[in-house]
UniProtKB/TrEMBL annotation:
The protein's name in its UniProt record: aldehyde oxygenase (deformylating)
Record's catalysed reaction(s): a long-chain fatty aldehyde + 2 NADPH + O2 + H(+) = a long-chain alkane + formate + 2 NADP(+) + H2O
Location of the protein in the cell: Endoplasmic reticulum membrane
UniProt domain Fatty acid hydroxylase: residue ranges: 167-301
InterPro entries the UniProt entry points to: Fatty_acid_hydroxylase, Sterol_Desaturase_Related
Enzyme Commission number, as recorded: 4.1.99.5
Stored Pfam families: FA_hydroxylase
Membrane-topology descriptor: Multi-pass membrane protein
Keywords: Endoplasmic reticulum, Lyase, Membrane, Transmembrane, Transmembrane helix
GO molecular function terms attached to this record: aldehyde oxygenase (deformylating) activity; iron ion binding; oxidoreductase activity
Organism the protein comes from: Elaeis guineensis var. tenera (Oil palm)
Family: Belongs to the sterol desaturase family.
Gene that this sequence comes from: LOC105052184
Primary localisation category: endoplasmic reticulum
Amino acid sequence: MHQHVAGPSSHEASSFPDSLSIQSLSPLFPSTFSSLPSTISLSGTGPLTAPISMASSLLESGWLYLITNFSEFQLATVGTFIIHESVFFLSGLPSIYFERSGLFSKYKIQKKNNTLDAQEKCILRLILYHVCVNLPVMILSYPTFRYMGLKSSLPLPPWSVVLSQILFYFILEDFVFYWGHRLLHTKWLYKHVHSVHHEYATPFGFTSEYAHPAEILFLGFATIIGPALTGPHLFTLWLWMVLRVLETVEAHSGYHFPWSPSKFLPLYGGAEFHDYHHRVLYTKSGNYSSTFIYMDWLFGTDKGYRKLKSLEEEGKQL
Ligand SMILES: [Zn+2]
Ligand SMILES: [Zn+2]
């Protein structure tokens, strides 16, 4: 999961950028967006190469359009919801198409396929939960985010800040998720809450967010705790949400490609790692982390997975 963001209502659409550089440019708005970039460099300091500078300029022009036409409340709630839905459903489509068409079947981790009914049930339930759980959470959590320092004004933060904050969110989310997920695998919680997510022993992209509403709230907490602690820029928050959605959809895709992120990102779990968690009995599955592999290694909950991997390696060598 994924969550979300928000901040309150006091911020009006008209309460436009408070930074000096933007104020000085406001008379140019909106017809001369293209002239903004050189003044409001995303990097903040130092010269940029031409392509990066141009991309940053476009980004800041687009951001200026958003904060001029929408209030921060609208962006942090409905805007976040729209981005989440777009990224989630678009990124989840390929694996469902591959499963139905048989394309890339040699990279499919499990031989089994889901039925059409099972795929449809997952999608319909997701739409219901997204509207009835995720969206209200985004709206209700907005005041908290505002209180913790969420901002949306220009200039956008330097990339060094954006990327270091997002790396911190990934590490913290993985840690919280690991322990929460282990808890969800205790008998009572598994039976009454987490078994919903495990209805799909052969996962596909959309199943990443298919869970009991109580689990959606927990996962949402793990996702927003990092941003809530650091009071980020809304841009950083959106980028974090997009990367987290792509990561969990990939982990549930059911396909392990030669170009999968786990092939080149050190310590990254990915589809093979999480698929094992879904296909093994819940008391024995292990692999509880969401993103990385080191928590399961440190606490010895990846022994079954490692044993299977080494057996597979031995099999290949024979
Ligand atoms: Zn689980
Ligand atoms: Zn899962």
